[in-house]
Structure formats: C-alpha cells, structure tokens
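Thread amino acids onto this structure.
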C-alpha cells in the first residue's frame, strides 16, 4: 500500500513540476519571442512531449493515485488521497479538454500572428489551472504519505513482542533499570 502511495506521490510531483515549469519559465520565455518562433517552438514542444516518459507520469499519476485510494479505502487518511484524485482528475480534464485542443489548433498551418493570438492567453491560463490543481494533488498525497508513515510506526511499535519491549526497558542484569543517584 505504501509503495503505491509513494509512487503516486512521485508521479504527481513529476507532472506538477512539468506544468509548473511551463507556467513560470517556458511560456514567459516564449512570450518574448516573435510570432513565428513562438508557434514553431510550441509545435516542437507539443511533438516531443508526446513520449512514453511523459505519458507515464501524466497517466500514471492518476492511475496510481486511484489505486492508492482504493487500497487505503479503510484508512483514516484516505480522504487526502481521494482529494488528490479529485484535484488531479480535474487537471487531467483541463489538459484533455482545453490544452490539447489548443495544441491541435496550433499544429495546423496559418498566419503565426493569428495562431498565437488564438492560442497563447487561453493556453497559459488553463496551464495555470492544471499546475495549481496538480500541486494541490501533490500536497494531498504528501500529507497522506506522512500520515501513512506515522500509522506504520505506531503499528510496528504495537506489534513488537512483549519480552522485546521489556528488555528494551530493563538493565543489563535483568532487573529494573538503575536510576543512579
């Protein structure tokens, strides 16, 4: 259970980071370029980002978070995982419903200035939404992971055999620990 939760957290961190980098570096950097360069670079980025590594984190974050939510359905911190699934589910919908269609529109030919005019502001806005949602999802998974770790430590302490617990609190001679005066 913890392994899937950990993997979901890593995948979510990767995808939240990708959206964040677009929001704070890639798009502001491209905003400084002329229309032709802007359109060409975005077309190239949209082509190369369609690769197994990106798809593994993009889809994997949702699948792993969903599997983790199911595995932890009886845990008191399950709501953190479900909140992550909901937040990233919305980010996924934003990507598929808005960012990808905008990318597809940019892929067609036409005047670079007109293409950029239709693309830039809505794409940047929707990317900000998905970056925020995936970051919220990452925070929720991080919280669930911390709570999972705490519960595991408590469970480990409770399952320690009684004699092992006693020996940890007794003196080397087997009697009560000496307090020393």
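Threaded sequence (181 positions):
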């Amino acid at each position: 259970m913890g392994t899937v939760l950990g993997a979901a957290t890593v995948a979510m961190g990767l995808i939240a980071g990708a959206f964040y980098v677009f929001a704070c570096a890639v798009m502001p950097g491209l905003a400084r370029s002329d229309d032709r360069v802007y359109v060409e670079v975005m077309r190239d980025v949209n082509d190369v980002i369609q690769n197994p590594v990106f798809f593994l984190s993009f889809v994997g974050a949702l699948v792993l978070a969903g599997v983790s939510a199911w595995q932890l359905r009886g845990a008191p911190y399950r709501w953190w995982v479900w909140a992550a699934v909901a937040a990233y589910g919305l980010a996924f919908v934003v990507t598929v419903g808005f960012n990808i269609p905008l990318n597809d529109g940019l892929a067609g030919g036409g005047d670079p200035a007109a293409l950029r005019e239709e693309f830039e502001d809505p794409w940047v806005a929707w990317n900000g939404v998905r970056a925020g949602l995936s970051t919220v999802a990452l925070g929720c998974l991080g919280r669930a992971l911390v709570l999972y770790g705490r519960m595991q430590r408590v469970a480990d302490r409770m399952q320690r055999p009684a004699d092992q617990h006693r020996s940890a609190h007794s003196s080397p001679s087997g009697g009560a620990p000496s307090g020393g005066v």
